[in-house]
Amino acid sequence: MKEMEKESVYKGKLPEGCKHCAKGSKMVLLVTGECEGRCWYCPLSEKKKDKPVVYADEKKVSYKEEILEEARAISASGTGITGGDPLLTEDTLEFIKLLKDEFGEEHHIHLYTQSIDLEHIIELEEAGLDEIRFHPPVERWEQIEETIFPSLLSDLEDETNLAVGIEIPSIPGKEEETVHLIEELASLLKFVNINELEFSSTNTEQLQNRGYEHKSDISSAVKGSEELALKLLDMDFDVDLHYCSLAFKDGVQLTNRIKRRAENVARESDVVTEEGTLIRGVIETEDSEKLCQELRDEYDIEEDMVWYDERDDCVVCSLAFLEEICPTIDGKCFGVEIYPTSDRLEVERWPLK
């Protein structure tokens, strides 16, 4: 058993897709929020669940170039295609081709699905898919040998070069079913990924109705999920196992991706923190665009040091510079800390005097 950060562990080899994720170098491409699975524990957010939307990381996209822009922004070495179920839209095939054409064969692409459409999966491999992760419905884990999954996995082993695995949540109270699932499919898989079960805004009622509780007051993880996952890794299954904690997803994968993005999108006027957030000065006034030009002219400052933010209609500049000139400004002056993500989520804002 090999330990990673934040209580994540694996036994055997770590899936290739997970290596890229751990570095923060894998773009998360949600190609649709639509899915036929209706899993009661699905944590997908309200703005994505059951909706025909496309997101590249945090950015909602409407055309292909935006996907490439996000991949460049994090210097992506790969892409994880998710949903919903990516096999419900023909866009998935086009997006795989797009990414491989732009970034080359070395750009690693993995995909999550419940689909059992062998021909479609083969088409995706021909387009450039490297790894596929199935999500068998929890209601069938106990009788997985009676489903099409064993024959599907066998066909994929014979007819493709895909790295094939399953990815499932660690569900307290489902130990027997989980063990049965892994034992029945182990010989047909390259890996089994086990994720810590989590509460979200869309699944809380379903989880609470089944008696699940939060791991702690400061965690959205489900109590007992991690304990079951670690118990499974202690068992003797003939397949590589990987447990990914919620803390690892949020505290390592996401943080590393944010740091990579900060390196590419930070302006000269920004201060980049150890966590990858950006600290900058912001001025809000009646005519921000005009003020921006006046400041550049008056202080002979380059465009990258003082600029007009059209989206938020404000002037953005170095915090140190703004602290100096704040008393002369006819407007509201703030220091802000934001994430370097496309939504520019604000961590903190404080007024300057």
Task: Please characterize this protein's 3D structure.
The protein has an eleven-stranded mixed beta sheet. Strands 14, 15, 16, 17, 18 and 19 form a six-stranded antiparallel beta sheet that branches. It has two domains: 2-261, TIM Barrel; 268-351. The longest helix has 20 residues, at 246-265. The chain has eleven helices and 19 strands. By secondary structure, the chain is of the alpha/beta class.
Can you describe this structure in just a few lines?
The chain has eleven helices and 19 strands.
Mean pLDDT reading: 96
Number of helices: 11
CATH topology of the largest domain: TIM Barrel
Indicate the overall shape. elongated
Q: Going across the major beta sheet, what is the strand order? A: 1-2-13-10-9-8-7-6-3-4-5
Number of strands: 19
> If classified by CATH, what would the architecture of the largest domain be?
Alpha-Beta Barrel
Provide the low-confidence segments as ranges.
none
Number of domains: 2
Measured distance between first and last alpha carbons: 55 Å
Task: Give helix % range.
Answer: 25-40%
Tell me the β content.
Answer: 15-25%
Q: SSE string, helix = H, strand = E? A: EEHEEEHEHEHEHEHEHEEHEHEEHEEHEE
Secondary structural class:
alpha/beta
The CATH first-level class of the largest domain comes to Alpha Beta
Please compute the radius of gyration using only Cα atoms. 23 Å
What composes the largest sheet?
11 strands, mixed
List keywords for this structure.
353 residues; alpha/beta; TIM Barrel; 2 domains; eleven-stranded mixed β-sheet; six-stranded antiparallel β-sheet; 11 helices
